[in-house]
Amino acid sequence: MYLVSAKEMLQEAERGRYAVGHFNLNNMESVRAFLLAAQETHTPIILGVSGGTAKYMGGYRTITDMVQDFMHYLDINVPVALHVDHGKYEEALAAIEQGFSSVMFDGSSYPIEENIAKTKEVVRLAHAKGISVEAEVGGIGGEEDGKISMGECADPAQCEQMASLGIDFLAAGIGNIHGKYPADWKGLNFSLLGEIKRRTGDMPLVLHGGSCIPDDQIRKAISLGVGKINVNTECQMAFTEAVRKYIEEGRDLTSKGFAPRALLAGGLDATKAMCIKKMTLFGCLGKA
Ligand SMILES: [Zn+2]
How far is the CA of 210 from the centre of ligand 1 (A)? Predict the structure, then answer.
Protein backbone atom coordinates (compact mmCIF):
# COMPACT_ATOMS: atom_id res chain seq x y z
CA MET A 1 0.00 0.00 0.00
CA TYR A 2 1.11 3.55 -0.71
CA LEU A 3 1.20 6.57 1.56
CA VAL A 4 -2.14 8.34 1.87
CA SER A 5 -3.25 11.85 2.72
CA ALA A 6 -4.33 12.33 6.33
CA LYS A 7 -7.56 14.06 5.29
CA GLU A 8 -9.91 11.08 5.14
CA MET A 9 -8.60 9.35 8.26
CA LEU A 10 -9.06 12.56 10.25
CA GLN A 11 -12.52 13.27 8.89
CA GLU A 12 -13.52 9.76 9.96
CA ALA A 13 -12.00 10.38 13.37
CA GLU A 14 -13.90 13.66 13.69
CA ARG A 15 -17.17 11.91 12.86
CA GLY A 16 -16.39 8.95 15.13
CA ARG A 17 -15.18 11.11 18.04
CA TYR A 18 -11.77 9.52 18.35
CA ALA A 19 -8.29 10.84 17.52
CA VAL A 20 -5.60 9.48 15.19
CA GLY A 21 -2.10 9.42 16.64
CA HIS A 22 0.75 11.40 15.06
CA PHE A 23 4.04 9.83 16.08
CA ASN A 24 7.37 11.52 15.33
CA LEU A 25 10.10 9.66 13.50
CA ASN A 26 13.59 10.00 14.97
CA ASN A 27 15.55 7.13 13.43
CA MET A 28 15.13 3.89 11.49
CA GLU A 29 13.97 1.99 14.59
CA SER A 30 11.05 4.40 15.01
CA VAL A 31 9.92 3.84 11.40
CA ARG A 32 9.80 0.11 12.00
CA ALA A 33 8.21 0.40 15.47
CA PHE A 34 5.33 2.64 14.37
CA LEU A 35 4.54 0.76 11.16
CA LEU A 36 4.42 -2.55 13.05
CA ALA A 37 2.27 -1.04 15.82
CA ALA A 38 -0.24 0.23 13.24
CA GLN A 39 -0.31 -2.96 11.20
CA GLU A 40 -0.62 -5.38 14.13
CA THR A 41 -3.54 -3.42 15.62
CA HIS A 42 -5.23 -2.45 12.30
CA THR A 43 -4.92 1.24 13.10
CA PRO A 44 -4.42 4.29 10.85
CA ILE A 45 -1.30 6.29 11.67
CA ILE A 46 0.41 9.59 10.89
CA LEU A 47 4.22 9.64 10.90
CA GLY A 48 5.57 13.11 11.71
CA VAL A 49 8.92 14.45 10.51
CA SER A 50 10.42 17.59 12.06
CA GLY A 51 13.06 19.69 10.33
CA GLY A 52 15.69 18.18 12.65
CA THR A 53 14.66 14.63 11.80
CA ALA A 54 14.65 15.44 8.08
CA LYS A 55 18.25 16.65 8.31
CA TYR A 56 19.33 13.66 10.41
CA MET A 57 17.67 11.03 8.22
CA GLY A 58 18.89 12.31 4.86
CA GLY A 59 16.14 14.69 3.73
CA TYR A 60 12.51 14.28 2.69
CA ARG A 61 13.17 12.13 -0.39
CA THR A 62 15.23 9.62 1.60
CA ILE A 63 12.54 9.42 4.28
CA THR A 64 9.74 9.02 1.73
CA ASP A 65 11.60 6.17 0.05
CA MET A 66 12.53 4.53 3.35
CA VAL A 67 8.98 4.57 4.72
CA GLN A 68 7.46 3.48 1.41
CA ASP A 69 9.97 0.64 1.00
CA PHE A 70 9.47 -0.48 4.59
CA MET A 71 5.71 -0.57 3.96
CA HIS A 72 6.25 -2.93 1.04
CA TYR A 73 8.79 -5.02 2.91
CA LEU A 74 6.61 -5.38 6.03
CA ASP A 75 3.36 -5.81 4.07
CA ILE A 76 1.70 -2.80 5.67
CA ASN A 77 -1.88 -2.35 4.43
CA VAL A 78 -3.31 0.11 6.96
CA PRO A 79 -3.52 3.83 6.07
CA VAL A 80 -0.18 5.59 6.70
CA ALA A 81 0.30 9.34 6.18
CA LEU A 82 3.82 10.79 6.06
CA HIS A 83 3.54 14.30 7.46
CA VAL A 84 5.85 17.31 7.88
CA ASP A 85 5.74 18.49 11.49
CA HIS A 86 6.05 22.27 12.08
CA GLY A 87 7.35 22.84 8.57
CA LYS A 88 8.84 26.17 7.66
CA TYR A 89 7.50 27.48 4.35
CA GLU A 90 10.47 26.16 2.34
CA GLU A 91 10.32 22.81 4.16
CA ALA A 92 6.64 22.35 3.37
CA LEU A 93 7.27 23.09 -0.30
CA ALA A 94 10.25 20.70 -0.41
CA ALA A 95 8.23 17.87 1.18
CA ILE A 96 5.39 18.43 -1.32
CA GLU A 97 7.96 17.96 -4.10
CA GLN A 98 9.59 14.95 -2.46
CA GLY A 99 6.75 12.53 -1.91
CA PHE A 100 5.21 13.37 1.47
CA SER A 101 1.45 12.77 1.66
CA SER A 102 0.69 15.46 4.25
CA VAL A 103 2.32 18.71 5.41
CA MET A 104 2.04 21.07 8.31
CA PHE A 105 2.95 24.64 7.51
CA ASP A 106 3.68 26.39 10.79
CA GLY A 107 3.39 30.09 10.06
CA SER A 108 2.65 30.96 13.68
CA SER A 109 5.81 33.06 13.97
CA TYR A 110 4.62 35.36 11.15
CA PRO A 111 2.07 38.17 11.54
CA ILE A 112 -1.37 36.61 10.92
CA GLU A 113 -1.70 38.23 7.45
CA GLU A 114 1.54 36.64 6.28
CA ASN A 115 0.67 33.32 7.91
CA ILE A 116 -2.61 33.36 5.95
CA ALA A 117 -0.97 34.30 2.62
CA LYS A 118 1.67 31.58 2.91
CA THR A 119 -0.83 28.98 4.15
CA LYS A 120 -3.00 29.68 1.07
CA GLU A 121 -0.04 29.03 -1.21
CA VAL A 122 0.86 25.78 0.59
CA VAL A 123 -2.79 24.65 0.29
CA ARG A 124 -2.78 25.40 -3.44
CA LEU A 125 0.41 23.45 -4.13
CA ALA A 126 -0.40 20.54 -1.77
CA HIS A 127 -4.01 20.03 -2.87
CA ALA A 128 -2.96 19.92 -6.53
CA LYS A 129 -1.19 16.68 -5.57
CA GLY A 130 -3.80 15.32 -3.13
CA ILE A 131 -1.63 16.17 -0.11
CA SER A 132 -3.35 17.21 3.12
CA VAL A 133 -2.46 20.44 4.95
CA GLU A 134 -2.31 21.34 8.64
CA ALA A 135 -2.00 25.00 9.63
CA GLU A 136 -1.34 26.61 12.98
CA VAL A 137 -2.68 29.63 14.79
CA GLY A 138 -0.86 30.92 17.86
CA GLY A 139 2.35 29.34 19.10
CA ILE A 140 2.68 26.13 21.09
CA GLY A 141 4.88 26.64 24.16
CA GLY A 142 7.66 24.38 25.26
CA GLU A 143 11.18 24.12 26.57
CA GLU A 144 13.65 26.54 25.11
CA ASP A 145 17.10 27.22 26.57
CA GLY A 146 16.18 25.31 29.71
CA LYS A 147 13.09 27.44 30.43
CA ILE A 148 9.62 25.98 30.00
CA SER A 149 7.02 28.50 28.84
CA MET A 150 3.32 28.05 29.54
CA GLY A 151 1.22 27.09 26.53
CA GLU A 152 -0.16 29.89 24.40
CA CYS A 153 -3.88 30.16 23.71
CA ALA A 154 -5.05 30.72 20.13
CA ASP A 155 -7.46 33.50 19.16
CA PRO A 156 -10.77 31.82 18.13
CA ALA A 157 -11.45 34.49 15.47
CA GLN A 158 -8.08 33.76 13.84
CA CYS A 159 -8.84 30.02 14.01
CA GLU A 160 -12.09 30.62 12.14
CA GLN A 161 -10.27 32.70 9.53
CA MET A 162 -7.58 30.04 9.06
CA ALA A 163 -10.13 27.21 8.85
CA SER A 164 -11.84 29.02 5.97
CA LEU A 165 -8.73 28.82 3.74
CA GLY A 166 -9.32 25.25 2.63
CA ILE A 167 -6.87 23.61 5.04
CA ASP A 168 -7.64 20.05 6.15
CA PHE A 169 -6.93 20.28 9.89
CA LEU A 170 -5.94 22.99 12.33
CA ALA A 171 -3.48 23.17 15.24
CA ALA A 172 -4.53 25.69 17.85
CA GLY A 173 -2.88 26.27 21.21
CA ILE A 174 -5.16 25.61 24.19
CA GLY A 175 -2.49 25.67 26.90
CA ASN A 176 -0.66 22.59 25.55
CA ILE A 177 3.13 22.65 25.27
CA HIS A 178 5.89 20.55 23.70
CA GLY A 179 8.08 18.31 25.83
CA LYS A 180 7.69 17.67 29.56
CA TYR A 181 5.01 19.67 31.39
CA PRO A 182 6.02 21.79 34.39
CA ALA A 183 4.63 20.88 37.84
CA ASP A 184 2.55 24.07 38.00
CA TRP A 185 0.95 23.60 34.55
CA LYS A 186 -2.67 24.74 34.62
CA GLY A 187 -4.06 22.09 32.27
CA LEU A 188 -5.86 22.37 28.93
CA ASN A 189 -8.27 25.25 28.41
CA PHE A 190 -11.50 23.40 27.54
CA SER A 191 -13.74 26.46 27.29
CA LEU A 192 -11.36 27.85 24.65
CA LEU A 193 -11.35 24.49 22.84
CA GLY A 194 -15.16 24.53 22.81
CA GLU A 195 -15.19 28.07 21.41
CA ILE A 196 -12.67 27.18 18.66
CA LYS A 197 -14.71 24.10 17.75
CA ARG A 198 -17.91 26.15 17.60
CA ARG A 199 -16.27 28.54 15.13
CA THR A 200 -14.50 25.94 12.96
CA GLY A 201 -17.33 23.42 12.47
CA ASP A 202 -16.29 19.93 11.41
CA MET A 203 -12.62 20.87 10.87
CA PRO A 204 -10.51 18.27 12.77
CA LEU A 205 -8.44 20.00 15.46
CA VAL A 206 -4.89 19.02 16.34
CA LEU A 207 -3.43 18.76 19.84
CA HIS A 208 0.34 19.21 19.84
CA GLY A 209 2.47 18.24 22.84
CA GLY A 210 0.28 15.17 23.49
CA SER A 211 2.89 13.52 25.73
CA CYS A 212 2.40 13.56 29.50
CA ILE A 213 -1.10 15.15 29.44
CA PRO A 214 -3.30 13.26 31.96
CA ASP A 215 -5.54 10.64 30.31
CA ASP A 216 -8.79 12.26 31.45
CA GLN A 217 -7.80 15.56 29.79
CA ILE A 218 -6.92 13.72 26.57
CA ARG A 219 -10.34 12.01 26.54
CA LYS A 220 -12.14 15.28 27.21
CA ALA A 221 -10.20 17.06 24.43
CA ILE A 222 -11.21 14.29 22.00
CA SER A 223 -14.86 14.57 23.06
CA LEU A 224 -14.67 18.32 22.25
CA GLY A 225 -13.34 17.86 18.71
CA VAL A 226 -9.61 17.05 18.79
CA GLY A 227 -9.03 14.53 15.99
CA LYS A 228 -5.23 14.34 15.81
CA ILE A 229 -2.82 14.12 18.72
CA ASN A 230 0.95 14.53 18.34
CA VAL A 231 3.20 12.35 20.48
CA ASN A 232 6.98 12.48 20.48
CA THR A 233 8.49 12.94 23.95
CA GLU A 234 6.96 9.85 25.58
CA CYS A 235 8.07 7.57 22.74
CA GLN A 236 11.60 9.00 22.92
CA MET A 237 11.67 8.48 26.69
CA ALA A 238 10.46 4.88 26.34
CA PHE A 239 13.15 4.17 23.73
CA THR A 240 15.98 5.65 25.79
CA GLU A 241 14.86 4.04 29.05
CA ALA A 242 15.02 0.58 27.42
CA VAL A 243 18.48 1.23 25.98
CA ARG A 244 19.71 2.59 29.32
CA LYS A 245 18.43 -0.54 31.09
CA TYR A 246 20.29 -2.74 28.58
CA ILE A 247 23.56 -0.99 29.34
CA GLU A 248 22.99 -0.76 33.09
CA GLU A 249 22.41 -4.51 33.17
CA GLY A 250 25.79 -4.95 31.47
CA ARG A 251 24.27 -6.80 28.53
CA ASP A 252 26.46 -4.92 26.07
CA LEU A 253 29.45 -6.61 27.73
CA THR A 254 28.22 -10.16 27.19
CA SER A 255 28.92 -12.24 24.06
CA LYS A 256 27.77 -10.20 21.00
CA GLY A 257 25.84 -7.77 23.19
CA PHE A 258 27.81 -4.86 21.72
CA ALA A 259 26.02 -5.24 18.35
CA PRO A 260 24.04 -2.03 17.63
CA ARG A 261 20.95 -4.02 16.57
CA ALA A 262 20.95 -5.86 19.91
CA LEU A 263 21.55 -2.61 21.81
CA LEU A 264 18.56 -0.87 20.18
CA ALA A 265 16.13 -3.82 19.98
CA GLY A 266 14.60 -3.10 23.39
CA GLY A 267 14.17 0.56 22.45
CA LEU A 268 12.28 -0.42 19.32
CA ASP A 269 9.96 -2.72 21.29
CA ALA A 270 9.36 -0.05 23.96
CA THR A 271 8.54 2.55 21.28
CA LYS A 272 6.06 0.18 19.67
CA ALA A 273 4.42 -0.59 23.04
CA MET A 274 4.10 3.13 23.86
CA CYS A 275 2.58 3.77 20.43
CA ILE A 276 -0.08 1.08 20.98
CA LYS A 277 -0.77 2.41 24.47
CA LYS A 278 -1.44 5.88 23.02
CA MET A 279 -3.58 4.52 20.18
CA THR A 280 -5.70 2.73 22.79
CA LEU A 281 -6.14 5.96 24.76
CA PHE A 282 -6.99 7.95 21.62
CA GLY A 283 -9.72 5.45 20.64
CA CYS A 284 -8.30 4.85 17.15
CA LEU A 285 -7.12 1.28 17.77
CA GLY A 286 -8.55 -1.06 15.15
CA LYS A 287 -10.13 1.76 13.09
CA ALA A 288 -8.21 0.97 9.88
ZN1 LIG B 1 4.02 20.48 17.70
Answer: 9
CA of 162 to the centre of ligand 1 (A): 17
Which candidate in 85, 168, 202, 216 is catalytic? 85
Q: How far is CA 70 from CA 19, 79, 191, in A?
A: 25, 14, 42
Residue 37 pLDDT > 80, yes or no? yes
- Is 251's pLDDT higher than 90? yes
Fold of 7-232+268-282: TIM Barrel (3.20.20)
pTM equals: 0.96
- Span 218-247, mean pLDDT? 97
CA–CA distance, 131 with 180 (Å, rounded to integer): 31
Nearest CA to 220 out of 191, 195, 184, 196 is that of 191
- 204's CB contacts (< 8 A; 6+ apart) are 10, 11, 13, 14, 168, 169, 170, 225, 226, 227, 228
Mean pLDDT value across residues 45-60? 97
Distance between CA atoms of 270 and 266, rounded to whole angstroms?
6
- 134: CA distance to ligand 1 center in Å? 11
Tell me, yes or no, if 85 is annotated catalytic.
Answer: yes
pLDDT given at position 146: 56
Q: 228 with 19: CB under 8 angstroms? A: yes
Residue 210 near residue 229 (C-beta atoms within 8 A)? yes
**pLDDT of residue 138 exceeding 80:** no
**Counting every residue, how long is the chain?**
288
Query: Which of 32-46, 107-121, 134-148 shows the lowest per-residue confidence on average (mean pLDDT)?
Result: 134-148
What is the per-residue pLDDT for 118? 97
| Integer Cα distance of 183 and 201 in angstroms | 34
Euclidean distance between CA atoms 85 and 216, whole angstroms: 25
Annotated domain spans of the chain = 7-232+268-282
